[in-house]
Design goal:
- By secondary structure, this protein is α/β, with parallel strands linked by helices.
- It has a single domain (47-282), classed as Rossmann fold (3-Layer(aba) Sandwich).
- α2 crosses α11 and α3 packs across α4 (122-132).
- α4 (122-132) links the parallel β5 (114-119) and β6 (139-145).
- The relative contact order is 0.14.
- The protein has helices at 5-35, 73-79, 95-107, 122-132, 153-164, 166-174, 180-183, 187-196, 222-232, 241-244, 269-282; strands at 48-51, 59-62, 65-68, 84-87, 114-119, 139-145, 204-211, 248-254.
- It is globular.
- Helix content is 44%, strand content 15%.
C-alpha cells in the first residue's frame, strides 16, 4: 500500500497542531489557577521552621532544577500567608551537633518565637535545642512527623552490624563520613535521651503518626517495612508508629517515611502540611 506524501504531511501537521493545542491548554489552565486569589483564613502568630531528618538537606540542585527536602510544602504554605523558613544541618551527625546548628540558625531569625515542624530526626534536634540549648523561650511549638522518639529496631540492627565490623566504621571515619547520628537512634539510646531531654514549659509538643500499607509503599522500603511489621507492628517503612508519638497526638496519616515529605506520587504532602498549620492556628500558635 502506497501512502500519498500529502497524507503523511497532513497527519504530522494534525499531530503537531494537537500537541500545540494541548500545551496551550495546560499553560492557560495553570495561568488561570495562579490568578485565582487565595483565600487566607486566620494566620499563625509565629512563623514555621521546617526541620529535616537524617540524611536530609535543604535543597538539591541539578543544573536549573531545584528540589526541596519538603517538596512543594514551603511554597504551598507561603501562598496561604504563612512565613516559612528551612535550614540545612549535618545529615548524619549526632543529635546534639545537629541541634546546635539548628539553634544557631534560629537565633538569626527576625521572629520572637517559631513553630518548628520537624520530620524524622529533625524532631529530636528540635527537642534537644529547646531543652539543652536554652531555646525554650524562642519556640512556640514542636510538631513532629515520623520521628523515632523511642528509636527504631532498624538502628538496633545497624548498631549490631557496626560492632562486628569496626573496620568499616574506621574507614568511614577516615573518609569524613560522620555516622554517629545513625547510631543514636537505637531503642536503648533513645530511652536515655528521653530521660535526659525534658519537655520545656510553654512549648506545645505535638506529633502526627504515620503508617504505610503495602498498597502505597515505596518498593525500596518493602524489606524494612516487613521487618518492622514483624518486630514492632505498624510502621512507615523506617519508624514504628509506637515510636512516633510525643506530646499530643494531632492526627494520623497513611504515608511511608519518604512520602511524608513529598517524595511520592500518591500522597499530598503539601496538603497535609496545610492541615498541620491549620491545626496550629486552631491552637492559637
Amino acid at each position: 500500500m502506497v501512502v500519498e506524501p500529502w497524507l503523511l504531511l497532513a497527519f504530522f501537521l494534525a499531530l503537531f497542531a494537537g500537541a500545540a493545542a494541548l500545551a496551550w491548554f495546560i499553560w492557560y489552565r495553570r495561568k488561570r489557577v495562579a490568578e485565582i486569589p487565595k483565600k487566607r483564613g486566620p494566620q499563625l502568630r509565629s512563623p514555621v521552621v521546617l526541620a529535616h531528618g537524617i540524611l536530609g538537606f535543604d535543597e538539591l540542585k541539578w543544573g536549573p532544577i531545584r528540589s526541596k527536602y519538603f517538596r512543594g510544602v514551603g511554597s504551598r504554605l507561603e501562598k496561604l500567608g504563612t512565613r516559612v523558613y528551612s535550614f540545612k544541618v549535618h545529615p548524619t551527625a549526632t543529635i546534639s551537633s545537629r541541634a546546635a546548628e539548628l539553634a544557631k540558625a534560629l537565633e538569626l531569625l527576625d521572629a520572637e518565637r517559631v513553630n518548628i515542624v520537624a520530620h524524622s530526626m529533625g524532631g529530636l534536634d528540635a527537642r534537644y535545642a529547646a531543652s539543652k540549648l536554652k531555646l525554650g523561650g524562642r519556640i512556640a511549638s514542636i510538631i513532629t512527623v515520623g520521628t523515632p522518639h523511642r528509636g527504631t529496631p532498624l538502628a538496633d540492627l545497624g548498631s549490631g552490624l557496626w560492632l562486628v565490623a569496626p573496620a568499616t566504621k574506621l574507614l568511614l571515619d577516615k573518609g569524613g563520613f560522620d555516622a554517629h547520628g545513625l547510631l543514636e537512634l537505637t531503642t536503648e539510646r533513645m530511652k536515655r535521651f528521653n530521660e535526659e531531654v525534658l519537655d520545656q514549659e510553654g512549648i506545645f509538643y505535638g506529633s502526627w503518626l504515620a503508617k504505610a500499607t503495602f498498597r502505597g509503599l515505596n518498593p525500596l522500603l518493602f524489606p524494612t517495612w516487613q521487618l518492622l511489621k514483624l518486630k514492632a507492628g505498624e510502621n512507615d517503612g523506617l519508624v514504628p508508629v509506637t515510636s512516633q508519638s510525643w506530646g499530643v497526638t494531632c492526627g494520623r496519616i497513611e504515608a511511608d517515611h519518604w512520602a511524608q515529605v513529598g517524595w511520592a506520587l500518591g500522597f499530598d504532602a503539601p496538603g497535609f502540611y496545610e492541615s498541620v498549620v491549620s491545626d496550629l492556628v486552631e491552637r492559637g500558635l
